[in-house]
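for the recovery benchmark. tokens below, seq after
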């Protein structure tokens, strides 16, 4: 994603690449981009914006524990923000990628420190956070079973 005079710009190459990977035509990609920029004028979604989006997406759930893990999937360049390209790539990979692509993204959720392995501690932490998401009375105790 580029920037022209302080305004986010989606290049033709990016629109074509996102079109090829998402199944949307380039016009639909541009419409999605315009909606993203209308919501995020600098072209980047910060952690607070992402938290708000998660709360809207799951209003009856306490997603606070999982949002940091999900945010890491989207923030592929680790700059603390999600730009439109990152958002679209992950959104469509998670919804319509190859099994290997989807598993790679899921692995990144569990690999909290991004060292290429999932430790028992990381797995226990994610299980505890997931139990919290589904409102188990005592997530800490429930996650000890694993």
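predicted aa per position
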């Amino acid at each position: 994603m580029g920037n022209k005079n302080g305004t986010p710009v989606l290049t033709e190459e990016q629109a074509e690449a996102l079109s090829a990977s998402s199944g949307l035509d380039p016009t639909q990609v541009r419409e999605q981009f315009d909606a993203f920029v209308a919501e995020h004028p600098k072209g980047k979604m910060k952690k607070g914006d992402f938290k708000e989006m998660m709360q809207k997406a799951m209003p009856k759930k306490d997603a606070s524990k999982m949002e940091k893990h999900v945010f890491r999937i989207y923030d592929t360049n680790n700059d603390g923000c999600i730009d439109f390209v990152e958002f679209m790539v992950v959104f469509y990979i998670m919804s319509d990628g190859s099994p290997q692509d989807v598993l790679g993204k899921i692995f990144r959720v569990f690999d909290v420190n991004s060292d290429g392995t999932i430790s028992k501690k990381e797995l226990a932490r994610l299980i505890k956070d997931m139990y919290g998401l589904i409102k188990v009375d005592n997530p800490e105790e429930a996650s000890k079973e694993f």
